[in-house]
Amino acid sequence: MNPRTLSRLEMMRAAAVVAVVLAALVAVAWQFVEPAPPRTVVIATGSASGAYHAAARHYAEHFEAAGLRARRPRDSRFD
């Protein structure tokens, strides 16, 4: 048998200290963690026959190869 056995109170104190230290570490780490960037890119272009639209299709291919979703807005608020 172990020469020194911990009492229930000592074990609870040790668990409380560990919990407080872990909570402090999480709180400090939370200050430095930033949210993940969005996985969808919206590309607004001109008409479908324009040079901007062709460039947007080119960029969309690169975005999709990198695992991002590229889309063109259906809304024509900027036209």
Helix and strand pattern:
HEHE
Proportion of residues in β-strands:
5-15%
**Quick check: average pLDDT?**
84
Shape: rod-shaped
Q: So what's the oligomer here?
A: single chain
Radius of gyration: 28 Å
What fraction, in percent, of the residue positions are helical? 40-55%
- Low-pLDDT windows of residues: none
* Total number of strands: 2
Main sheet makeup: 2 strands, parallel
Strand order of the largest sheet: 1-2
- The class by helix and strand makeup works out as mainly alpha
Question: How would you sum up this structure, described in words?
Answer:
With 79 residues, the chain is mainly α. Helix content is 51%, strand content 8%. The protein has 2 helices and 2 strands. The chain has helices at residues 8-32, 51-65, and strands at residues 40-42, 69-71. Strands 1-2 form a two-stranded parallel sheet. The radius of gyration is 28 Å and the shape is rod-shaped.
Overview features:
mainly alpha; 79 residues; 2 strands; 2 helices; rod-shaped; two-stranded parallel sheet
